[in-house]
Amino acid sequence: MTFKEQIQQGIPSILPKPRAYESAINHAPKRKEILSIEEKKLALRNALRYFEPQHHAKLIKEFEAELNTYGRIYMYRFRPEYKMHARPIADYPGKCEQAKAIMLMIQNNLDYAVAQHPHELITYGGNGAVFQNWAQYLLTMQYLSEMTDEQTLTIYSGHPMGLFPSHKEAPRVVVTNGMVIPNYSKPNDWEKMNALGVSQYGQMTAGSYMYIGPQGIVHGTTITVLNGFRKIKTNPEGGLFVTSGLGGMSGAQPKAGNIAGCITVCAEVNPKITHIRHSQGWINEVIEDLDELVKRVALAKANKEIVSIAYLGNVVDVWGKFDQENIYIDLGSDQTSLHNPWAGGYYPIGISFEDANEMMANNPDLFKEKVQETLRRHTNAINKHTAKGTYFFDYGNAFLLEASRAGADVMAENGIDFRYPSYVQDIMGPMCFDYGFGPFRWVCASGNPEDLQKTDAKYLKIISNTFLFLTYFSYIYILNTT
User: Fold this and answer.
1) pLDDT of residue 349
2) Residue 479 has what pLDDT?
3) Three state DSSP letters for 44-76
4) Angle between helices 353-362 and 364-386 (to 10 degrees)
5) Rounded-to-integer distance, Cα 368 and Cα 406, Å
6) pTM of this prediction?
7) What per-residue confidence (pLDDT) applies to 284?
8) Residue (of 218, 222, 225) closest to 248 by Cα position
9) For a designed S-S bond to 214, which of 53, 152, 222, 252 qualifies (C-beta 3.0 to 4.6 A apart)?
10) How distant, in Å, are the alpha carbons of 61, 116, 286, 364, 445 from that of 30?
11) Radius of gyration for the alpha carbons in the chain, expressed in angstroms and rounded
12) Is 274 exposed, middle or buried (0-12, 13-18, 19+ CB in 10 A)?
C-alpha cells in the first residue's frame, strides 16, 4: 500500500503482525501500578472498543501484557510501518488543505528526531501525549483525510469523537485534553485515568499538534540567554550558563547558548537522549567525568570559547563540584520536567538512571522521598553560587514550586514570594513582551526551502522597524539558523 492508502484505511481490517520492541528507542519509563483488578478489566474494555469483536480474543492478551509490563496500553502492534516524519503537504491524502497541514504537524510531533518517547506517543515533558494509543492515531489521520472544509473533527484526550458539520471559517479540529473535575485532579487521579485510557495530559503543544521541538523553541531560548547576560551587564563571550535537561524543549538550551555566544553546560541523566542530541548537533561535546568537566570549562573560559557541553549525570553534582572548584557561573537555570516529578520528570542524585526507573515503578513512595531530598540539595548548591553573584532564574518548569514543596530554601524573606524570579517575570517580560515582542514560530508546510527563505526574508523586513536591541537578537538568531 502507498503512504496515502495507509492513511486512508485507518485501523486495518486484518490485524498487522506484532511489532518488535525496539530497545534502541528512547522509551517512556514503566508507569507505577495503580489499577485494581476490576479497573484493569475496564482499561482492557476501553482499549478493545476500537476494534471489531472478532479481534478481541487475540488483542486482549496482548493489551493485558502491555498494561502489566508498561503500566499503559499503547497498542504497539498498530504502530505504522512507514517512517514517521512531517512530509510536504502535497504528500498527504485529503479534501482540505487545513486538514493536510494538521496531519503534517501530528507526524512532526511523533518524528523520532523530535518526540521524547515516540513509540509511546509522548512528545515532551515525560508525559505530554499526542495520543494515548496507536489506534487513536490511525483513526484521527483517517478522519483528517476524509474531512472537507465544512467539517470539524472533535477530539478528547486523543480520542477522536467524530466529524461534525461546521463551516469554512470554523476550526478544522477542536481538541481538549485532561478535562478533569478539580477535586479529582491529584497526580494519582490523573495516573489512574490515563491508565484506564480515558484521559491524557497533552502539555501545551503535544496534544494540540503544535509542537515543533527544539528547532521551534530555540528562538525563545536564545532571546532568554542573550537577555539574561544583558540583564547582568555581562558579555556572553567567556560567560558560563549552567542548566539541565535535554529531553524535549530543553534540548534547545545548548544550541541557544552557542548562538548567544557563551559556554553552556547542560546536565542530562538519560544516556540515550544525551547521545541523540549530540548526534543531531544540538550539543558540541559530551562529558561523563566531573573532573574532566571542570578542566574543560576552565579551558573554555580561558579561551573565551563558544561551546556547549552535555554532562551525562545529575546536575546537582555539577552545581556542587563547580562550587568546590570555584568555577564561576554567570547564568543558572533548570529545564527538567518538574511538572511531572514522580514519573520521570526529575531524577534523584546518587542512583543510576536504570535503578531510578525501577524504583519509580515499584517503590514510588521511596522515589518521591529521594526526589525531594535531591531538590533540597539542588537548591542548597544553587544558593551557594548565587551568594557569589550567579544570576539564577526559574524557566517555567515548576522548579521553585516543587523545591518549596520539598522544604528547600527557596522562599524570600516575606515567606510568600520565591527568592528567585521566573524568566518571564525578569527577562522575557520587561525586555521583550512589554514591548510587544517575543519569539516567533512558523511552519513551512510546502517543505520547499525557497518558501522558507521567503518567510525568513519577510520576518527580517518586519522586525527591522522595531527596537534596535530586539532586532539585533533576532537577526543573530535568523542568520545562525538559516
Assistant:
1) 97
2) 60
3) HHHHHCCCCHHHHHHHHHHHHHHHHHHCCCCCH
4) 130
5) 10
6) 0.83
7) 97
8) 218
9) 252
10) 19, 15, 27, 11, 35
11) 23
12) buried
